[in-house]
Amino acid sequence: MLTALNLPKVGPGTIRKLLNQQNLHLTASLQESVDRISVSFSPAQTTEAVSKTSDTIERCEKLSIHIISVLDEEYPRALLEVSDFPPVLYVKGSAALWSMPCVAVVGTREASPLGLSYAKQTAATFATAGFCVVSGLALGIDTAAHLGALSVDGATIAVLAHGLDSVSPSSNRPLAEAILEKNGALVSEHPPGVRPYAPEFVRRNRIQSGLSRASIMVESGETGGSIHQARFTKQQKRRLFAIFPKKELGEQYNFRYSGAQILQSEFGAEPIETKEDVLSVAAELLRK
């Protein structure tokens, strides 16, 4: 599969089409399909694809990165429900975490102190209840969510928009290391060497929501990653929630309500106001 992805003009969409035609997990049939594709390429192009694949595998081995394809049993079943699932995942740390119930806790990079507090408490509550907390290692709410899970020795997955040979933002490298030290995981659909690229920060949101039974939007502006994740969450028919602190408390700490209001009015986000609400949502999602 990696070799096919390294052939000119053969991308994840082509692989998904082949997999859907073969009803998944039919490795021999997939191999035959890849062989048929390869016939249309020159020997030089095929040789280059094989070489790139070997380089990727060697680099991943050196960096302790697991390569998991959709044909492997370890591939997260929840992602198969996503129409544009990534055919290959690269994982540092524990690839077993997505066998747990997962919940995404995400939000703006420009968070208020109250938003950061809500993110940390919400993630800690879900982690204590037995969830793996999924977020994106970004500054602001994402960072607080990972820290909240780690604070109670809970499980957390960081989905990155680039190769796992780097961490973006670089200031969160210590957090990434702490996630790995506490048996968490870093996940990407990109091989080592792929640098951060703005559109991929949007696309990775579909993986965050796709791994999760629900997405909890803690604080958001009127545009940005949280709005994109809300859209993916609804497309994937997953539950969507938005934090709504009590008005007087939010105004006191400059909490950004504008995003939450859009999430509720345009995407039907269900409101969460208190810790009791969080506990209730966690219990409900565990019954799924």
Distance between the termini: 33 Å
- Rounded to the nearest angstrom, the radius of gyration is 20 Å
| Strand element count | 9
Q: What would you call the structural class?
A: alpha/beta
| Count of discrete alpha- or pi-helical segments spanning 4 or more residues | 12
Protein model, in words:
The chain is an alpha/beta fold. The protein has helices at 2-5, 12-21, 27-39, 43-62, 113-128, 141-151, 173-181, 198-211, 225-235, 247-252, 258-267, 275-286, and strands spanning 66-69, 88-93, 102-106, 132-135, 155-159, 185-188, 214-217, 239-243, 270-272. It has a nine-stranded mixed beta sheet, sandwiched between helices. Helix 5 runs parallel beside helix 12 (275-286) and helix 8 crosses helix 9 (225-235). The relative contact order is 0.12. The model has no long low-confidence stretch (mean pLDDT 89).
Task: Compile the SSE list and pairings.
Elements: H1 2-5, H2 12-21, H3 27-39, H4 43-62, E1 66-69, E2 88-93, E3 102-106, H5 113-128, E4 132-135, H6 141-151, E5 155-159, H7 173-181, E6 185-188, H8 198-211, E7 214-217, H9 225-235, E8 239-243, H10 247-252, H11 258-267, E9 270-272, H12 275-286
Parallel strand pairs: 3-4, 3-7, 4-5, 5-6, 7-8, 8-9
Antiparallel strand pairs: 1-2, 2-6
Helix pairs in contact: 5-6, 5-12, 8-9, 9-11
Summarize the structure.
With 288 residues, the protein is an alpha/beta fold. Helix content is 47%, strand content 14%. It has 12 helices and 9 strands.
